[in-house]
User: Fold these one by one.
Assistant:
Number 1:
Amino acid sequence: MIYYLNALLLMLLISCGGSDNDSSAGFPLPESQEITPEFLVDRNDVIWGFDFLPDGRILFTERSGRLFLLSPESQEIIQVEGAPSVRAIGEGGLMDLKLHPNFATNSRVYICYTPTNGRAVALGRGTLEEEGLTNVEQIFQTQDANSASIHFGCRIEFQNSDRLFLSVGDQNNPSQAQSLNSHLGKILRLNAEGDAPADNPFSGTDALPEIWSLGHRNPQGLAVRPGTDQLFSSEHGPTGGDELNIILPGENYGWPLVTAGEPAGELGESSEEFVDPILTWTPAIAPSGMTFYQGDLFIATLRGRHIRRISLSGDVVSSQGELVEEGEPRFRNVSVGPDGFLYFSTDDGKIGRVNF
């Protein structure tokens, strides 16, 4: 299958004060490219999250609740026993995973999932050994799950070896995204042990201490910009109005009071009370996992059915383009491997890689 880069041809409009124009357009990337991917896995389940062992093998989740190890060179796949039990309903199940930054010495794996006893977002931790995932424990769970089975968020990103970020969607309960007494619609910052760091922005107040930022709908992508402390997040809007945000501690990103999607927010597309996205997309592309690669930001998109490449000049988007696969899969996640390839996973059970 062939990938091609379909550069957008309209001027980028950054959404600051509200506008009727589509802010998804950007300056074209310098050249069109054709890229031939190598496919390593072809299964039948959503491959939600994956990460790389020091030896280059890939640990990945299937949303229905199974965990696997893949050797990219031999393409051998083995099931890893010991994954936490999940309730795979709606958009929930076994979702993101990340290896601890010191995995080479502690073998720790962190997994985000919906537990069997409800529809909360849980964070588990285990030790990867030859016999499987051992010493598995749930170290955090959201307090306010409801009956909805959508908008879980559930992306993990380490800030450093001691702190991590966890995204939590509004679970179709928009009003809770504005409540500091709810985990829903938030990006959380946790210690590696699962408790709240003392220097979190709402520590010492009546708010839930894990909250890092609020006013989110369904943030399915998190990435820390290399060489900085900047946390980027991709977020699903309602109908249109998908967002790319730079996440700042203690800030409010407006959902559901402001949105560029439909139905319109009570306060329109923008308000001085809230932080504006640096980029929005209408029509919706449903951005999911993302990573920085060769200085650019790459985002897997579900509804858009492409990998989107975004170039930044400082904190401003300077261009964006689409890397599109002929079969038009729903791209769920994207990450950089230790071999320098850009890897991706899809909702139809594929893992592939490309090199630029």
Note: Residues 103-106 form the longest helix (4 residues).
Number 2:
Amino acid sequence: MNSPTYRLNPVAIGGVGGSGTRLVANILTKAGCYLGGDLNGAFDNLWFTVLLRRKSWFKQLPHDHHIRDAIKVFQLAMSTGLANGQLSVHQQAIFEQAIQDFDWPNNPEKQRLARAVDSLRHSQSADTETFLRWGWKEPNTHIFLPHLAETIPDLKYIHVIRNGLDMAFSTNQNQPLNWGKFILNANLGETISPISSLDYWIKANHRAIEIGRRKFGENFHLLSYDALCKSPDKTLPPLLDFLGMPTDPAPYIPLIAPKTLGRHKTEDLTIFSKEQKQAVHDLIQHL
């Protein structure tokens, strides 16, 4: 089977969990992007989740070629599908290892993800006559930016960033729990404090921005969720232009309905150091 041909480059959406990637995925879906055959309510591509968000990788990432191999299996699933014997013996072993490595016991979505494994195993190619491009949204994508740049060289990447003070008080602390050891080189324990959460936000976003600009160049787009919500008429046209689409923001503005912007204003910010607050200010100023 020949790989289907999409009209535009593939695109991925990532960011620290809770940054607003769901809204961006909703916008891209409306714009004609195929973001996967099995998505959860947050528009996360569960095939990417199963193949790359592995428990055994949280403490230490494996050799680069293991990650690239997993990405190639994911890319194959999103293009021609894994049904009909598309996987080589080596790729089949990678697929089965990913299922074994996944953090099944501690995942509240384990039943939903088990169904995603089955849909991944029987995946078929998407109808490229319907979609402009293929891609995915999965917040953890930013962890694997160096490997994605090497494996999918024409990939466009959108990194969504939201005010770190809001993020520090979010109930979504899955990324610091899972990747805190990798990003901060420290064990954060089972409960993430706002201070630790903000440390993770600062380091993870600095890393993603540096790698994105260096590895992706013009195929990297940094998007402020706060600006998108407050001024969509100004923020949407550059995003749509980056995607090679008509830049009229009108069709997408009704999708934007923020509910938790500025939640840090009711919290005690004296718990954060002067250096942390300055780092947040510096990151936001450059958006």
Note: The beta strands are 11-14, 33-34, 133-137, 156-161, 220-224.
